[in-house]
Amino acid sequence: MGMGTAGGDTGTKAAGFARLVVRRAAWVVGAWLAFTVVMNVAVPQLEVIAGQDSSPMVPDDAPSMVAVEAMDEAFGNGGSESYIVVAMERPAGLTAADRRYAESLVTELAKDKDDVVFVQDLRRPELRKALTSKDGQARYLLVGITGATGAPASMRQVTAVRDIVRERAPDGLTVEVTGPTATVVDLTTETEHSVVRITIVTIGLIALILFLIYRAVAIPLIVLGVVGLGLGVGRAVVAWCGMEDFFAVSTFSGSFLTAIVLGAGTDYAVFLVARYHEQRRLGVEPAQAAAIAATRVGGVIAGSAVTVVLATLCMVFADLGFFNTTGPAVAVSIAVNLVLSLTLTPALLALAGKRGWAEPRESKAAGAWQRVANLVAAHPVRMLAASLVPLALLAALFPLVDLSYDIREPLPDDAESNRGYALLARHFPVNEVLPDYVVIQADHDLRNTRDLALIERASAAVEQHEGVALVRTITRPTGEPITQASVAYQSGLIGDRLGEAKDRVAKGAGGAEQLADGAGQLDDGASQLADGADRAVAGADRIATATARLSRGMTKLLDGADASVTGAGGLREGAASLADGLTTAADQVQLAVDSLGLVYDALATKSLTCGLDPACRQARTGIKRIWEAERDQLLPGLREAARGARTLARGTGDLRAGLRQLRSGLAQARGGTQQLAAGQRTFADRLDELSGGADQLATGADRLRGGTEQVAASLPELEEGLAVAVRHLRTTRREADGAGAGGFYLPPTALSNQSFASASRLFVSEDGRTARIAVLGDTDAFGPEAAQRSEEVLDIIETSFNGTRLDHATVAVTGMAATNNDLRHYSQSDLEVIAAGALVAVFLVLLLLLRSLVAAFALMATVVLSYGAAIGLSVLVWQYGLGIQLDWTVAAIAFVILVAVGADYNLLLTKRMHEEAPDGSAAGIARATAATGGVITSAGVIFAVSMMALLAGRVTTIGQVGFTIAVGLLLDTFVVRSLLVPALATLLGRRLWWPQRPEQAGAESGA
């Protein structure tokens, strides 16, 4: 049995290397000290190199990042990769000094060309009002920087902005710099500050545990010395790799590297010390014992380190910077510590052993582990069930995990960015500075009625989606649709104007009736005049035979002639007035016809949606009929009547002249009888003319009466038609003004309006080919609901554009919620890649070292079960116990470490089983379990404590990762390694080593 003998390893290359290290122990120690000092002097500190990294929180090709770049290019914000918010507050109300200070920041920040590329100009009145709270107590402005969110380069820029805004702030004015980028900067700062605290706590706890285990000073000092040098040289080598651009490093690389190196380095040292003590108890002299320990455990330590290296290297294939900057850093530091552990630890043990400083002491735990091993050997089924049941119950909680992507949660409430969020929440609507932006890129200018109508329709659809509080865009810059641009508004406006016209026509209807009555009276008078003229002609014939009565009747006739002259003059003036009135009426009707023509033209050719709306289409048809009736019937009739009245006026002029001539003739007749015959002839002639003129007057008056009666009859029909149009268009307004109608029509003249153009610059690019829609949700922008909603909003808008002019437009969404949504997708895909890679890598290492498919599969199954149980326990403690969601980083980081380190412990146990029980005997498995119980327990507890020390930091994320790995390691140590694996191995027996045969396993174990 390999562990029961001294020596036996002298013929291998590993043994020769171990003896060389022990013989040159002082040189080895000196070389490592010198190398560590040189590296830390020549290479900048890891934090400095991490600060030069530009890796964003999500990849540059993430949809949200592509949209940010497109929006920045289109709206000319100077190449901003991210934005921060300067928020200010005075509870008593902003003073004039505060307002001047806020406006001066625009100039002061713009001067910092190295850090700031864009400042929202709140000196503009429209922006100043929008950026000031309604209560007048707070104000904010956006500042664009070139550092991407999550990139360490943004840390310097946020710090520079904070220095500028605090430098000149008036007394009593609270000023905070916040926003997602500032939050990540605060998270990085807190992490850096936590590293020192975590390191001190970790070393202190490890030292305490080592003193309790070894009850001596030398061994803990040796272990701590190796771990300390390992951390120093590991950080330096990682910094050098980052400086030479072999891989990127970040602040999180340093924090996790510290904890893992301290834990793993301590484990490796403890493994070597345990074998060294075992050889010393067998009487092997110190130098040889150190060499044998390095030879015997070197393979296990190498296998353990390789599993961690390969598992963490799988993180390089992840898309997220958090993973692909952390994985390679941990892998390199573990590789460096592997070499250091296999050389420096044996050298220090040999040097201390010569002086008697590293002698073993009696362990009371050996008997306890022997009893546990015997119990498992005697009752393997019970022990298997006793270990599987709690692990399975905890693992059953794994599906209940609710990961958080809220970058604010890991930070304490007093972090500046969190104070800024609280300030904004007190004075502004939710998500005022954290909207989602939908970016629409087309191949043509969008500033036309049809495209704007499509954007408005999409915005209206988004506004109806659950969780959307407000939508702002070119068609609704304040969040409310432009009232004048809706079909409802325009239909109502037309209806109102037609209503006014209808009222005016109704008033004019009475005048038309009076006109018809007057024409009737004129017709009657003209008929009477014609009859009188006929009788005058007949009387003239009797004059020749009644000359005796001539003298008496002459005077009366002369009086009648005077009256006729006066009456004919009145008739002429009335006909002229009638003609003027008819002309005026025709002009007014002409205006009505022109107005209705414009209305019909607007609805027929300029409205995008009227043809789609049955109500609007019917109204348009009714208006057309009214317009054509007025144009083709009423208006020509009025014009003809006016011309007839003019003719009548001219006819009455001839009549008046004849009567005057009659009077002159009568006067002449009265002057002398000698002219009687000639006077009679003249009188007869004039009476004939009078008779003809009276007939013309009667005919014209009759036509006038008919025309005016037709006008009077048609006006009520016109009034009723206008009333129908009014009712129809007003009904259209009521029906089209519903929430889902989406009726939109913006006249082309509005596009050139100055106020509209000013607002459009916020939502449409200068070339008009890019538009954006700001969507404000009613839930936390960092929450899962907002992330899911950003994806749904994108689908709504793309669906709205299907089959339209914007069908081929590029639509993307960005903002905090969209970035978190990308983060969720990338983290899930990264976890799948990392998990698959880590499992394959660890399985291959186990297969190579154990040369058994069954053992490799069994160990992989146990570590996966242990990981599931660890996550389940974290869900129970954090999610349900403390009410805090697990951070999205926990699942991936914990998987890599637990699978790799858990496989290490199982590998150490299984290799010992391979030595003690190559035939699968229960007794040999019990011996292996008892022999490794103390060392694996010590290593597991130390590693778990080093990870638990991450809780000493103020960043919840790091604490959750440390807690999850710690409980997973403890489950591995006390349940999986102590009960589950031994019980499973006992039940499998020699089948555990398949496809090896017992004689092969025995030969390898004795090699």
Give a brief description.
The protein is mainly alpha-helical and 1007 residues long. It contains 29 helices and eight strands. The chain has five domains: 7-43 and 216-360, Multidrug efflux transporter AcrB transmembrane domain (Multidrug efflux transporter AcrB transmembrane fold, Up-down Bundle); 80-178, Multidrug efflux transporter AcrB pore domain (Alpha-Beta Plaits); 365-426 and 815-997, Multidrug efflux transporter AcrB transmembrane domain (Multidrug efflux transporter AcrB transmembrane fold, Up-down Bundle); 435-484 and 746-814, no CATH class; 487-736, Methyl-accepting chemotaxis protein (Helix Hairpins), CATH 1.10.287.
| Beginning-to-end CA distance, first to last residue | 10 Å
Radius of gyration: 51 Å
Regarding CATH, which class of the largest domain? Mainly Alpha
> What structural category arises from helix and sheet content?
mainly alpha
User: Helical content, roughly?
Assistant: over 70%
**Proportion of residues in extended strands:** under 5%
How many distinct helices? 29
- Overall geometric form: elongated
